[in-house]
Amino acid sequence: MYKFIIKRLLMLIPVLLGISFILYSIMSLTPGDAATLMLGDSANEQAILKLREELGLNGGFFENYIRYIGNIILHGDFGISYRTRNPVFTEVLTRFHYTLRLAFTAILISTVFGVLFGIIAAVKQYSFTDNFITAVTLALTSMPDFWLGMMLIIIFAVTLKLLPISGATSWRHFILPGLTASANYMAYTIRQTRSSMLETIRMDYVRTARAKGVPEGKIVFGHTLKNALMPIVTLVGVNMGWQLGGTIIIEQIFGIPGLGSLLIMSIRLKDTPVIIASVMFVATLSSLINLGTDILYAFIDPRIKSLYQTKKKAVKTSG
Q: Is the distance from CB of 300 to CB of 230 less than 8 angstroms?
């Protein structure tokens, strides 16, 4: 298990280097200049050259990139924001907790209701309830996030005046964004839970439990759901990674000052250090979440844990 974790962590290094190189290339080769964007078109050439020197942009592409990545590797220095002149991770961490709260709200909604409705659909297979849940699932899957967000604002904020339209100062501000962000993922969770439950509920040990008179609730939650959790956990882990980096549009609609809003602003001003640090930060968290999901498999499914133990014993025996 430890070797597996170390191997996965080491694999992060080339991935993050690749991300940084791709992003740096895109920001360097696209039209526009960070110094010109910051000073405006009316700035004179001398002021622009002076600012480019301060930002370390006067060298060639590879020279600038090697200097930038060298500072990260040797000193852990991701640079300063071109826009605010603050350290990059001060900007990122200041915004991240808003994105994290939104992602957590969306994951909580999609997981709880997705698993619950998926179980109901599986237990009531081919009934009106199952057909209704399937229809709702298809509707949620086909709704674009920006459209659903605006509809929720019109209904619950403008018409009913129950929830705020924008902002991020209280938990009430995250209800509508959380519902918007969770819609598609909840639909996928419902479908995956239903499919896994139907596959497990037909197993012989479930029939045996019913024949012995085990209560239906214990069969569903104690036997069937427990053995159907693997694909559900995988989907939730993937969704967590997507939520951390995929709420840009939702943050813009609801005026949440998270990482998405920071990225949009930084792209407009070609604030390369902030863009690279933000994406690398999210990529690292997503990789760690996926690693945590893989480790969780061993606690959910004893067969996987025994597989690791068998390999460990085989290595000791051969040694």
A: yes
Check: CB of residue 137 under 8 Å from CB of residue 187: yes
Encoded tokens for 192: 């995956």
How far is residue 22 from each of residues 16, 245, 265, measured CA to CA in Å?
A: 10, 17, 19
Which residues touch 291 (CB under 8 Å, ≥6 apart)?
5, 8, 9
Total of domains in the chain: 1
Distance CA 287, CA 230 (A): 18
pTM of the model: 0.82
Q: Establish if 74 belongs to a structural domain.
A: no
Distances (CA, A) of 176 to 54, 164, 251: 43, 8, 11
Q: What is the pLDDT of residues 203-223, one digit of tens each?
A: 888 888 888 888 888 888 877
Residue 182 domain boundaries = 88-318
CATH number of the CATH domain containing 282: 1.10.3720.10
User: In the chain, what's the furthest Cα-to-Cα distance?
Assistant: 87
